[in-house]
Sequence to fold (693 residues):
Amino acid sequence: MNVPTMAEMLAQGKQPEILFWVGCAGSFDDRAKKITRAFVKILNKANVNFAVLGVEESCSGDHAKRAGNEFLFQMQAITNIEVLNEYEIKKIVTTSPHSYNTLKNEYPELGGKYEVVHHTEFIKTLIDEGKITINKEKYAGKRITFHDPCYLGRANNVYEAPRYLIKELGVNLVEMKRNKSNALCCGAGGAQMFKESEKGTKEINIERTEDALEVKPDIIATGCPFCNTMMTDGIKNKEKENEIKVLDIIELIANAQDL
Amino acid sequence: MQYIPNILFAILLIVGIGFFIKNIRKLIRNIKLGKAIDRSDNSALRLKNMINIALGQSKMVRKPISGLLHFIVYIGFIIINIEVLEIIIDGLFGTHRVFSSLGGFYSFLISSFEILAALVLISVIIFWIRRMILRIPRFWNKEMKGFPKNDALYILYFEMVLMTLFLVMNATDIQFQEANSGNIISQFIAPLFNGFNAESIHLIERTAWWIHITGILVFLNYLYYSKHLHILLAFPNTYYANLNAKGKSDNLESVTNEVKMMLDPNADPFATPVESETNEVPEKFGAEDATDLNWVQLLNAYTCTECGRCTSVCPANLTGKELSPRAIMMKTRDRIEEIGKNIDKNGQFVDDGKNLLTTISTEELWACTSCNACVEECPINIDPLSIIMDMRRFQVMEKSAAPQELNAMMANIENNGAPWQYNQLDRLNWKDEE
Fold:
């Protein structure tokens, strides 16, 4: 798989158009790595001039910040910003809404000013520019529901790009009762991903999975590696994993192109 | 002797308004106990938000039924208050319906007041039914016991009584009924008093008039002690609300300074800290008490109407966790009130051994997913999440009291740049794994 790093680019005297920020989940989590690879396949297919930081990338610090550890967050942020600025990065794309949010909103004050886009926004631009067309045959007629990631939706008001891509797949997009700005969280945000939940009557991801099951989808589409994990767990808990797939939008697009 | 009612009225007015002003000054002082935050930017957008959200109630209709009913009560409240102006002039100068010289326009005004009064009465009754008969869950969360529950009911009863008095006052105004113009609703109430002689009817009219204006003044002064303060504070609250993307959490500047020093290769690690000349206590990281919050957060707390829309969409609350964003706001308000009373009593704040954590448990703080649903839902842009975040910061940075699993996660980030125990050098392994 062709994945140039910034260090290699620099050695060749090249500057990529865009940096792909892979994020911790995208780098290490087995499920999320598939999303990462699907995205790279699309980038290569569309001949996008991109690069990754590779071993020079470090945690964005988002989870530390949401946990209240502003020190650790800023240590991470300032270290990352030094690397990004050293490479004169102007534009960043990421598959994680959590990296997206913190890079876009919280890095600028610390000296890291970049144009940051989510992968769904980026792919939409590629389609608009005619650099890629989506195959409508593979998923034609399937019922797909989209779970809005909080850090993409409410946090940054990105609701349309993911839906645009899903519709491009030629599928039947069905909305859950709680969607867009009313969407229910999957339960992973605010560092919850890394701890047991507090005492309660139910897990949040089960509540959200029930929202999805109500609309009887064939596929639950996500745009965040953490939401993906939570929804996948929810579907397993309901013993529906044979009927309902949980896939990132980028995986749907890559699959549709048989990449 | 004939001036006694006028004098009584003037005294009533001065006492009522004077007491109100006194409490408002106290309110402003308490809000200013919060830390500084600059919200003086972008006044055009702020004004626009205030007009849309507070004046125009644009976020109320996210729930259409309560949104519509609230709109009626709100419009009624504003418009019927024009009538209060007439009442004040009549009261002070001994005139009777001083604006009636406006003729047809006056009839139009009074007719619309009467229609609104009837609509408000109906709406308020429906509100009461929703709360007490239909028992809509968000009115029955556990923080809605005792005063908060009664407060909501007192307000409804107050409005019912005020509207009824207004209509009765018009119905028993013989002159007004005889003119038969503008009495669009009260003409149907007037026949109820047919059996009474003119003197009794006049007495009823005067009584209704006096109780009505006294009631308004009492209600005005009740505001400060009640969740109903939102009718005033919704305006500054929407004006000073956060304009950034909801996902943006502030970067603590005090932390930035320290982190930059730590990462500065030229900094002398053995340097003794510069002795502060003013001997001031170093700034706390995060919030332990209400006074560690900024003034906008305190304004938020006073503005909260306890409607519970935030709590009704909170994923943690929906799944039975202890956290309720509304309770966070209520507890913050109760604490800053307590601090204010402490200052009133002692001249300055005297340590009472309490803080925000006396009432807000860490269990509540750690249940939050930072999903922003509460912030999105609030009809007047209150931000409970920012308080939760500031309180988490205190827990982690001042007390090192994060849940164990989060400590492990943070240790991993510190050691190997990822929340899990993977070597940073393996960060690109994914590309060869298929």
Q: What stands out?
A: Chain B is about 60% helix and 0% strand. The CA atoms of residues 412 and 421 of chain B lie 6 Å apart. The mean pLDDT of chain B is 94. Chain B has two domains: 4-31+63-239, 253-266+283-425.
